[in-house]
Design brief:
single chain; 296 residues; mainly alpha; Alpha-lytic protease prodomain-like; Alpha-Beta Plaits; 9 helices; elongated
Length: 296
């Protein structure tokens, strides 16, 4: 598992190095703000890819005395750093594009290399985003998912730049700056989504749909009279579930233990890489509660 994650992360670093250098050279040759903005975007993607590579190396380290829940949140922190880098990219692009449009200095040189670099970028980005997305889903890695999101964003932003180059080829040079603003808009949208997810995990927000899934699983066990104090958090690819369940007070300790094991195994089969802790309590027939309905 670790080797496959590291391999795909390292390939992303190499892809980002190539794309950044290629776009920068062609951008400087043509003076295209669209391509230069793409070069900066790819440059920050390179930094993000490097951060992702090292975060993946660290995140799968086992828990220790100082990190009782493991090192998984380094992936979420990595994704948050990538969000900041993307926002910085947008600020520069918007400033430069607006300045060119206001001053009227929008002329650029459009040649064969302009089209080659953009089309090559789209092809590489499609390949990398698919590979990253596949491994991210396989191992529930937010860092790799963030990297995949970066490359998929590049596909759309490169397509916008390509449209700008085509317009500039027909004398509509302002289209290049407009295309750059289009890139910034796309990047800002993706940054918001990525940043929100990262912050949610860092603040221990329960993953969407997980609470309902655990409630449904608990309700399927007839031995569980009610449950409460359900708490769910994630750290990297790992999910931690804690809940109190009420069982028949006449059950033996062995029977209670076996029931809890079955519940933990069932939740574990439905939530990948989860660690489930169940605290069993004797049910008091004379005490009416509604925990089975609200689960909290």
């Amino acid at each position: 598992m670790q080797q496959e994650k590291l391999s795909v992360a390292l390939l992303s670093v190499f892809a980002a190095v190539f794309l950044t250098g290629f776009k920068l050279i062609v951008g400087l040759m043509t003076g295209s703000l669209g391509i230069l903005s793409e070069a900066l975007h790819s440059g920050l993607d390179l930094v993000a890819a490097v951060i992702t590579y090292f975060s993946v190396r660290i995140s799968d380290k086992p828990a220790d005395k100082q990190h009782n829940y493991g090192h998984g949140k380094i992936e979420n922190f990595s994704a948050f750093i990538e969000t900041i880098l993307l926002v910085i990219t947008c600020i520069w692009i918007v400033y430069e594009a607006s300045n060119r449009l206001i001053s009227g200095k929008t002329h650029i040189e459009v040649g064969a290399w302009s089209y080659i670099v953009v089309v090559s970028s789209i092809i590489i980005d499609i390949s990398r985003s698919r590979a990253l997305s596949r491994v991210a889903k396989k191992y529930n890695s937010q860092a790799l998912e963030a990297d995949a999101l970066h490359f998929s964003t590049d596909i759309w932003s490169s397509a916008v730049v390509l449209l700008g180059l085509i317009c500039a080829n027909f004398g509509y040079y302002f289209a290049d700056s407009v295309a750059a603003l289009g890139v910034a808009t796309i990047v800002l949208f993706v940054s918001y989504q990525l940043g929100k997810r990262s912050i949610d995990v860092l603040l221990d927000k329960a993953p969407k749909g997980t609470v309902d899934l655990v409630k449904k699983t608990l309700s399927e066990f007839l031995e569980v009279k009610k449950f409460h104090s359900l708490k769910i958090r994630t750290s990297g690819a790992d999910t931690f579930v804690k809940v109190n369940v009420h069982l028949d007070p006449d059950l033996s300790l062995r029977e209670v233990h076996e029931i809890c094991d079955k519940i933990e195994n069932e939740i574990g089969s439905r939530i990948k890489r989860s660690e489930v802790y169940i605290h069993a309590e004797p049910e008091d027939p004379g005490h009416v509660q509604t925990e089975m309905q609200d689960g909290l």
